[in-house]
Amino acid sequence: FWKFSTFSNPNPLLWLNPLFRIGSKRRLEEDDMYKVLPEDGSKRLGEELQSYWDQEVEKATKELRTPKLTKAMIRCYWRSYAVLGVFTLIEEMIKVIQPVFLGKLILYFESYNPDNAELYEAYGYAAGVSLSTLGLALLHHLYFYHVQRAGMKIRIAMCHMIYRKALCLSATAMGQTTTGQIVNLLSNDVNKFDEVTIFLHFLWVAPLQAAAVIGLLWQEIGASCLAGMAVLFFLMPLQTIFGKLFSKYRSKTAAFTDSRIRTMNEVVSGIRIIKMYAWEKPFAALVNDVRRKEISKIMSSSYLRGLNMASFFAANKIILFVTFTVYVLVGYKISASRVFVAVSLYSAVRLTVTLFFPAAIEKVSESCLWSFSLMQKFLLLDELVKAHVPLTQEDKKEASVEIQDLICYWDKVSSLLIFTSLLQSSLLSTVLEELPAEKGVIKVKGELTYASQQPWVFPGTIRSNILFGKELQPQRYESVLRACALKRDMELLPDGDLTVIGDRGATLSGGQKARVNLARAVYQDADIYLLDDPLSAVDAEVGRHLFEQCICGILKEKPRILVTHQLQYLKAADQILVLKEGHMVARGTYSELQQSGVDFTSLLKKDEEEEGEKEEAPRSPRNRTISQNSVRSHSSSVLSAEPVHTMAEETRTEGTIGLRMYWKYFRAGANVIMLILFVLLNLLAFYILHDWWLSYWATEQRKLDFHSTNITANGTNGTNTNQELNLDFYLGVYAGLTGATIIFGFMRSLFMFNALVSSAETLHNRMFNSILRTPVRFFDINPIGRILNRFAKDIGHLDSLLPWTFVDFIQVFLQIIGVVAVASSVIPWILIPVLPLLISFLFLRRYFLRTSRDVKRIESTTRSPVFSHLSSSLQGLCTIRAFKAEERFQQTFDAHQDLHSEAWFLFLTTSRWFAVRLDGMCSVFVTITAFGCLLLKDSMKAGDVGLALSYAVTLMGMFQWGVRQSAEVENMMTSVERVVEYTELESEAPWETQKRPPPDWPNRGLITFDKVNFSYSSDGPVVLKNISAMFRPREKVGIVGRTGAGKSSLISALFRLMEPEGKIIVDGILTSEIGLHDLRQKMSIIPQDPMLFTGTMRKNLDPFSQHSDHDLWKALEEVQLKAAVEELPNKLETELAESGSNFSMGQRQLVCLARAILRKNRILIIDEATANVDPRTDELIQKTIRDKFKECTVLTIAHRLNTIIDSDRILVLDAGRIQEYDAPHVLLQNQNGIFYKMVQQTGKAEVASLLQTAKQVSRVQETGELILLAGPAGADRWGFKHTST
């Protein structure tokens, strides 16, 4: 369409006009965009490049070499891209021919004779200048449009390939890369293609153009031109050196940026834990440290850029100075036509030789060496190859899984992955072909489906998460919802099952996610169901429902493999397989195993002596987690109609960016004095005086020549008439002006870069501090991708793109003012046409910016889903592959890409629409100037004509570039706006206040809740209602309640994650009066989702470095992790993998326990910590807590009643209110009570055991209290309980 409109229509890109009309009236929405062209579709482009890459891999394998991504790319795109070189060639030829017309026109004025009939020729030359200007306008934009579109296509194809590769990475490959690195490939590295395609053709066009210019200059000024060209060619390698250095800094910066984004990802993911531990400061130090290194590299590369830009602007002046100094010193006389032909020719070649050619070298070296190698390395990672054997009807009828002599390794290479022998999960991974068999046979007959141990949901509606690509069958769907206990949840959600769940399912509780995850597997009509521990994320009542109605109900006709450590369900199993230490130790029915004498229940308990012997071979407890990043616990499950967070829409500001935003931006990096200094530098570094002096010199020389010619003609004696101009004076002034221009130009450039990069540094720090201090609610309603986008994309703009664009704009803007000033001083009446041109330009700019800004904002917001989809796919990789849904996820990714391409394509074309019109205006200006000079031929001096015309011609590309840079600055200021928005977030209470508690507070551990109400947001529902309770010193209290009763909200209130109403008093101090850090550091928590952070083991245990090595090892020994850590390559100094993924879930939980031991606080909160681990680890944790925390007040939230039945008292919550609060045996006597009913639901054997324990506790408490009467002052009841039990 565009091709047609350019060549056959004087007004290109007319098809965009309706869009601009809409944009000028209202804000543009995604629906207003044009559909992506079929040839730009993500699927088509990706598959095309993939086929070339596959061929290259095949060929390289035969030739025993590494496949080269560049080869595949060249084969795929060289034809279409090579054609575009023709446009550049013609454009650069016109640029060289135009100064020839200009020279002829000035020559006419030099030898002007009113009687001469050369006027028509002069009009011809003026027309030549005007037409070449118009030709340049059209060709330039045609070329740029096509190369940018070529870059876009390559980028889209690469993104498609990267995502496709990510979907089939093997377990080993996943260990060699991180989510952060893959996201970075997609967000930063592929963008290099957009840049490299623009400049690539200049690698061969520039030398050709330089040769043509040398030829023309030789004709004009002889050998002197070689001096100028020598300077030009000296500048070329200089620019290339700058490019190389820049590349070096760029790769160093990229490494720091990666590291910063990875840390930010962990901070945002684990913000709840960071806040509860009061670890904001060490994390701030960690991020600030990386950021400082990153900024020092950015500052260095910015100074390089500053020098580069200043040398580019000064190059012309130096070249002219050298050329004409040599020219006059050799003895030639200066003339206007020679001066301005040289000026124009140098201008034409300078841009290509000193800017585009080095840029091409820089981009090629940066893209090919750095980004290409990263992408190539990623594309060559190991893939998981699954054998897709077609299933017969017979297989489906006799569905089975057969395993013989199986041996598997997770990763034999990496010493860090020793731990991950995740027994039962590994077995399922093998069945799913995720874990390759080293030896042995595994045969699967039938279609598999899988519910992962770590519940995974993707952004979309709940219904789409359950259907997972299947057709909706209302009857089956309803029965699945009922079987998975989701019916009630759906009724309470705002939009039922059409409620949208955000990133990582942050709007759902852990229990809800687990049930949606199970429902997805159940809804698939498969032959074999693999269920990896779906019951431990839910409480006993829901667990029983799921087991009876779902696993043994709706699925009863199908083979099911269930991983569990809930022993009450074993009787219902047809076969039981007991695994231990990676070996099968028993197999059979429940009764067979009982008769065989294998005490398989004790196999799941901790065996003290054996533990001692096998300390050196660390075993990895079962790792079941509720939701990797959502530490919301079950407090937002809706059995009691508690709120579900809905994701807030990403804000998109409207209208222009006010001066206030620019002021905030500048003030962040410079003070007022610096800003005044900057204005002065700009005025001093004015380039025009330099050229005006040349013009004045040529005119004076002309006058002198004319004068002496006249004298000679009149026959006067020529003895003392042969006057010469004072060369020393003219050259001296010229040298002075050149020197001043260069010095002030460099100073200005460096100064501006310094100020703007400092602004980026300040704004990043403010935004990060603001994020750390904002309440947790912010992270619940904003997806991770959105927050990280500000730290990656927006800060990236502030760091490098915005300073460069801003400095460029300022320099170009000053030059444009200079051009108009010169033209109007020569031909004052030129201001008459300039005024309407200016008015129409201002109108056009406003008209364009309204639409362009919206297009840019839509482009930013349509980019986020691409990243979100990638990161959520990587989290649910096992599930996606088990369901064979790779193709569908690839299609969704392509759809996200296509939506982004629509916005990007509009961004390209709207920019061209604007630029073509601006260059059209410049052509009018050049035409008026050229013909205006001829109309006023009688009063014009040749020097003035030369100055006015050569400047008017340079206006061509420069004017539209300057205006587009101003628009680009305004577009990029949206990044500043987005960052500033995050610097002004609502802040939680101060970390420290004037009122500091005593150093030994709390020394008793008495906690009192007095009429406490709690809500997660000011306008949200109240989730704790009128809570009044007292937790006595050294008391052990269990907190129970159905999913969503408000258990975790009680802890959130205690830690003031949101400010509660009412009073919470700890040891006589009102918690709301002290700082958050003073409060949170004095309470220890073992959270439901144990988070380990990238960094050393030492940093994970003790981020403030407050403890000695001896203390750290002792704590590790107490939680039985000492042997495991000793086996790590650098022991305590070993760097952990992302999120501590080289530790099992149970081990991560033990690290959290070690942290609590180290803190030695009087108050310990355990938030469902043992829901995630097997009974052996659970018992170890319970035992450690009984031993190490007997002097402490311990509050334990638990799903498993056996973990809290031996508490002193139990608090029962329901719907945010306290229903019961007493000793366990007292509660169990009330048969109508909630606690009694919860115990009854655990199964007969468990009920008997729980009742027995409760009685024992009550007896111990009575005897313990009797002994206390007779015992010494320090005697301790908890200790008695422990010994008696």
UniProtKB/TrEMBL annotation:
Bilayer topology term: Multi-pass membrane protein
Superkingdom in the source lineage: Eukaryota
Region Disordered: start-end pairs: 607-645
Subcellular location per the Swiss-Prot or TrEMBL entry: Apical cell membrane; Basolateral cell membrane; Early endosome membrane; Endoplasmic reticulum membrane
One of the Pfam families matching this protein, by short name: ABC_membrane
Entry EC no(s): 5.6.1.6, 7.6.2.2, 7.6.2.3
Protein name: Cystic fibrosis transmembrane conductance regulator
Protein source organism: Cyprinus carpio carpio
